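In response to the reviewer comment on reproducibility (Comment 2.3), we provide here a single inverse folding case reported in full, input and output, so that an independent group could reproduce the run without further information from us. The structure tokens appear first.
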């Protein structure tokens, strides 16, 4: 029953991931942590994040903004390693609540105030660094990366696919670390195999749904997702 519930949550989360370009792992993470345990869930979601985001990116490779992708990865990979190190020395449940509260404020602010305020370049670099740290600690840096991406990637398709390519690379790196630490057990591999067809269906379904949404509604959906992510983090951590 635990596996069935997780697979249901996974399918929903990765359909959202295909629509928005982010938020898949953070929606699936609380359910997985409760049902399967933290290490198993992180390993499964990193493997599936690599597979599903890689599939979406390959299907739409022409929409990748390679210049922005290079900037994002150059900063986030370095600070992701810092986050992985901090993961071993800090009380994560407290930091996770703080992170969730910040994301709630960001999402609510952008939903309530229509006019978008552009951040200075230095602030965007700081956000990228923080996104990397959060990715390393919680495998959920997407909520902060969205703040950067909304300002830098103005085209809807470019936004989705460049973020998907980012998660392909970061999830691959994290999955390799989890494999080295011995987290890919027999049960984990079994669940990954069950998730693969669901990820394919969710990616195709989400891609079709995304085409029906205008840019205005798309951005609103992005901010709603941020708000929901923050609430999930505050409630479940």
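Designed residues, in position order:
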């Amino acid at each position: 029953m635990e596996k069935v519930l997780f697979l249901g949550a996974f399918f929903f989360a990765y359909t959202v991931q295909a629509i928005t370009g982010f938020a898949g792992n953070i929606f699936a993470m609380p359910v997985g942590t409760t049902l399967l345990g933290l290490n198993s869930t992180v390993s499964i979601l990193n493997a599936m994040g690599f597979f599903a985001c890689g599939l979406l990116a390959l299907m739409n490779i022409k929409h990748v903004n390679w210049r922005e992708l290079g900037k994002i990865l150059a900063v986030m990979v370095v600070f992701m390693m810092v986050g992985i190190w901090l993961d071993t020395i800090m009380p994560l449940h407290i930091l996770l609540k703080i992170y969730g509260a910040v994301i709630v404020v960001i999402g609510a602010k952008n939903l309530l105030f229509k006019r978008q305020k552009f951040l200075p370049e230095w602030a965007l670099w700081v956000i990228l660094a923080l996104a990397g740290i959060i990715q390393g600690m919680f495998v959920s840096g997407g909520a902060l990366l969205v703040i950067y991406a909304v300002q830098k990637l103005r085209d809807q398709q470019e936004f989705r696919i460049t973020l998907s390519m980012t998660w392909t690379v970061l999830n691959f790196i994290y999955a390799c670390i989890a494999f080295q630490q011995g987290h890919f057990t027999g049960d984990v591999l079994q669940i990954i195999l069950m998730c693969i067809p669901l990820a394919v269906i969710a990616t195709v379904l989400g891609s079709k749904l995304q085409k029906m949404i205008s840019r205005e509604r798309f951005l609103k959906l992005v901010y709603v997702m941020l708000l929901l992510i923050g609430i999930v983090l505050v409630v479940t951590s």
